[in-house]
């Protein structure tokens, strides 16, 4: 597990496409997020990059976002998602982040269970379940964790 290098970007884009299909980040977006200093943590095994997380630290606000988390279908259920999240949270903490936010599809039970087990909780009231967050019918839960 390590932070990503420029040459990893095409492999992250391939994994993202495999996991998220049409909702994957286009390569040029990943490239620009990398250049802009977003945090990218990857798991690189014998077959290449099999998992990654993308995060943003807003140090002046003490706040950070986990923007993506993906484990390749063949590697799921072996603890990689949890390890990646822990490493990403550790990285955010080192960047003076004190509160981490993320959004998740309400039906994504495995991701929600993982986030809750790490201490994330749903934001109270109307901000917890955000209707049409990504457009019509694309609701998201907004979860937060104090580091
Ligand atoms: C969600 C995801 C990242 C989990 O990664 P993973 O490596 O399979 O997860 P882990 O093996 O580390 O498991 C960690 C915890 O996640 C939860 N979890 C993982 N798979 C699960 C499943 N099939 N059903 C229910 N809970 C599950 C459990 O709480 C598990 O802890 P436990 O084993 O102690 O019960 C992975 O399934 C994935 O990439 N899914 C597609 C992309 C996605 O949905 N990303 C999140 C977008 S917000």
Automatic annotation (TrEMBL):
- EC number(s) given by UniProt: 2.3.1.-
The UniProt entry, under Gene3D superfamilies, shows: 3.40.630.30
Q: Which domain of life is it from?
A: Bacteria
Entry's Gene Ontology molecular function annotations = acyltransferase activity
Q: What class of enzyme is it?
A: transferase
Give one Pfam hit by family name. Acetyltransf_1
Keywords, alphabetical = Acyltransferase, Transferase
In this chain the N-acetyltransferase domain maps to 1-147
Work out whether the entry's keyword set contains NAD.
no
What is the protein named? GNAT family N-acetyltransferase
In which organism is this protein found? Streptomyces koelreuteriae
High-level lineage: Bacteria, Bacillati, Actinomycetota, Actinomycetes, Kitasatosporales
